[in-house]
Amino acid sequence: xxxxxxxxxxxxxxxxxxxxxxxxxxxxxxxxxxxxxxxxxxxxxxxxxxxxxxxxxxxxxxxxxxxxxxxxxxxxxxxxxxxxxxxxxxxxxxxxxxxxxxxxxxxxxxxxxxxxxxxxxxxxxxxxxxxxxxxxxxxxxxxxxxxxxxxxxxxxxxxxxxxxxxxxxxxxxxxxxxxxxxxxxxxxxxxxxxxxxxxxxxxxxxxxxxxxxxxxxxxxxxxxxxxxxxxxxxxxxxxxxxxxxxxxxxxxxxxxxxxxxxxxxxxxxxxxxxxxxxxxxxxxxxxxxxxxxxxxxxxxxxxxxxxxxxxxxxxxxxxxxxxxxxxxxxxxxxxxxxxxxxxxxxxxxxxxxxxxxxxxxxxxxxxxxxxxxxxxxxxxxxxxxxxxxxxxxxxxxxxxxxxxxxxxxxxxxxxxxxxxxxxxxxxxxxxxxxxxxxxxxxxxxxx
Length: 447
Prior knowledge:
Elements: E1 3-7, H1 11-22, E2 26-31, H2 37-45, E3 49-52, H3 57-60, E4 65-68, H4 77-84, E5 88-90, H5 92-97, E6 103-108, H6 113-126, E7 131-135, H7 141-147, E8 152-156, H8 159-163, E9 172-175, H9 190-198, E10 209-213, H10 217-223, E11 231-235, E12 244-248, E13 251-255, E14 264-267, H11 276-291, H12 296-305, E15 314-319, E16 322-326, H13 333-342, E17 347-351, H14 364-370, E18 371-377, H15 382-388, E19 394-398, H16 401-411, E20 417-420, H17 433-445
Parallel strand pairs: 1-2, 1-4, 2-3, 4-5, 6-8, 6-9, 7-8, 9-10, 10-11, 16-20, 17-18, 17-20, 18-19
Antiparallel strand pairs: 12-13, 13-14, 15-16
Helix pairs in contact: 1-7, 6-11, 6-12, 11-12, 16-17
């Protein structure tokens, strides 16, 4: 019996374990940290052997195949040892894809991938398709495959998941954009990160689609050097595109090819999602709708009534005329740029956290234009002070969500906005960006 060892027991690892057990493999889960109670109960319920707080090499190095949590880096000593023994290491997404014949829409990119994934799922549900949504958000792909038959999957896929994917095949692949992120995992080489993102196109055929942002410099610069067999369809805010999705005079025009009958059109002011970056997200979703031959009126309805995901430019409350917005999902500089670009009133900006090699240069003009005060929320805020001390009235340090919200409330004026858009990872003070966002919202509600 083939032995599958799963490293890491979060949603991804537990989902993989359940699917592997269902497929009749000898399954063992090993986690260097503590396994969350809800996952431990599931492993026990499925009679899956596991260990926590350690990696016992005798139980791991005898694996026929390893399914690795996306959070474990290549420089991990156990991974190095497994590589030296030529033991196959794959991601949970790669594993799950072996056990479904469903149509797969796979979405990656530095920013926007969660919104596009959620928006496309909403669209396919509205069209009456038997569809599930998962991957890097919500439920793991493996769990979805194990528990029910679906005709369509809409998957958000991170670069870490792509790194360990080899045979995975996307019928529609979307690359929203590429900006420097996670460079600590890619030897601080942007090209390594770019190559990782383009892996989403591997195994695509001429019957498939690759949708990309034609306005994104790093994406377009790497198109020629990447072997892409799929039909390449751009989306852009530049109206000169002959085919693809674009915006002209406030109207979206969407067609897969320049001779496609019945192109999709819609006024951008009718979109549920506001801001320049969300125009890109809506164009990508509309293209997917056209590729799946969904009726224009259904696409229009989905783009009109979609509710944005939690922790992404989420309006929390207005207190004494001050609007509080939770954008905790902005874990990099580019995401924070998008958030600031959307703001139409003066901003008290809550930023900071675990710096991933951030370069704040791209934010300077927006900060000068829109931000009055910065409230840092992190253990080391040196780089934020160095970057913006000359651009704002004041920078204040705090070390908790509660303190940050109280200080921001004291300093903000009626008619202004307090924006949590950290531009950093959350791991110095929080478990993840979700916890950071929840604690921010709780603090706002207790004002």
